[in-house]
Amino acid sequence: MLDADFIHRWLTAAAVLVDREAGHLTELDSAIGDADHGSNLQRGFAAVTAVLEKEAPGTPGAVLTLAGRQLISTVGGASGPLYGTLLRRTGKALGEAAEVTPGQLADALRAGVAAVAQLGGAKAGDKTMLDALVPAVAALEDSMASFAAARDAAEQGALATVPLQARKGRASYLGERSIGHQDPGATSSALLIAALAQTAEAAG
Predict the structure, then answer these.
(1) Taking the mean position of all CA atoms in its chain, how far away is CA 51?
(2) Global pTM?
(3) Which of 11, 52, 126, 201 could form a disulfide with 167 if both were Cys (CB 3.0 to 4.6 A apart)?
(4) What is the pLDDT of residues 39-50, one digit of tens each?
(5) Which pLDDT band holds residue 178 (cuts at 50, 70, 90)?
(6) Residue 10 contacts residue 187 (beta carbons within 8 Å)
(7) Domain that holds residue 133
């Protein structure tokens, strides 16, 4: 079972990975975006870590909802609303349960990913964060909630954005010139799922 402390540790691990990979994310974004994806997410997840240290909600859903609100209020550009919506909608789907199963988290993440798709008007294959998130959630559901399988699927999904032409977001303005570059949003989404797998492995 996964409790509020597990979710807190997941988001803290995500903040560490984003901080470590911020330069790489910005490098990817400089090719097809505004060159601020890494720094924006770095600031946002640092703010999430700080607010969770202060408030420490008591349920998994409340932790995710608070984190999502914090990302929306502190991250500029499109990534704040998108990541914030992902976490808030996932938290809302979990409800007020003190503990949830991995399967329930997978179902809630699917609701979060659907909300991101609706907000951005995108789908898998459009060269966005959904290219990592959609296969990750599918792997969670298909493999009895294996977080390692979800991590691998997200990483493969991010790599698979390289030959795609962007159809949504800032990168879509480049048309065919967006081909040959890995999408920064899919790459950062893969980090979020990697942090989830890492947290689950540490928990045994």
Answers:
(1) 18
(2) 0.95
(3) 126
(4) 999 999 999 999
(5) confident
(6) no
(7) 2-203
- Counting the structural domains of the chain, the total is 1
Give 125-146 pLDDT, tens digit per residue: 999 999 999 999 999 988 666 9
Using alpha carbons, select from 163, 150, 144 the residue that is nearest to residue 189: 150
Residue 121: phi and psi, rounded to 5, are 65, 30
User: Residue 62 is part of a domain; what is its CATH number?
Assistant: 1.25.40.340
